[in-house]
């Protein structure tokens, strides 16, 4: 079974408070998402595989390290787009795919509408990012789509997760690790996370 890791950090707790406030302006919400994403990325990248290289310093040759694996970041559009910068900040050479999915407001089921994924996914570490893990339908659908393309090493990174969404993803994809900033209480009757922070996509792009 994949791990579920809640990242504990004082800055994360402070920034989550900013995101939860209903009166946080769009610009501040967007920049805070970026900052939180960079903290999550830092933790996710702890397990990056490295290779040793010789480095010529001004004084002598010493041992250095370079990243020794391909990384592809795949945001689930729209809201996942707000998390990209936090990941490429630490790993500018990471490639970025795009996967468009939305939740049908009646059935709460994921609907695919766009996919553009870099080649070589079968040999890459694939990091799926989406601010909210609610029912888990969109995340599970995205993971299923990427596995069909050949992805074998997938990590899911979210900001706010519901227990129901975590259970759903783990049931369908027990090989996938999940990193999140917080696990909230529950889903309401409309499948929104409580206490949550509202619709992350609307609040990032100012469409609410």
Question: Overview of this structure, please?
Answer:
With 208 residues, this protein is an alpha/beta fold. It is 30% helix and 32% strand. It has six helices and 13 strands. The protein has helices at residues 10-20, 26-44, 84-88, 137-148, 163-172, 200-205; strands at 4-6, 50-56, 61-67, 71-77, 95-96, 98-103, 110-116, 125-129, 132-133, 153-161, 177-183, 186-187, 193-194. The strands form three sheets. Strands 1, 4, 5, 6, 7, 8, 9, 10 and 11 form a nine-stranded mixed β-sheet that branches. Strands 2-3 form a two-stranded antiparallel sheet. The relative contact order is 0.18.
Keywords:
single chain; 208 residues; 6 helices; 13 strands; 30% helix
Give the biggest beta sheet: 9 strands, mixed
- Mean pLDDT, to the nearest integer, reads 93
What is the H/E order? EHHEEEHEEEEEHEHEEEH
Distance between the termini: 37 Å
**Tertiary shape:** globular
Kindly name the structural category.
Answer: alpha/beta
What is the count of helical runs? 6
β-strand number: 13
Helix fraction, binned, reads 25-40%
Tell me what portion of residues adopts beta-strand conformation. Answer: 25-35%
Spans of at least 5 consecutive residues whose pLDDT stays below 50 are none
Radius of gyration: 18 Å
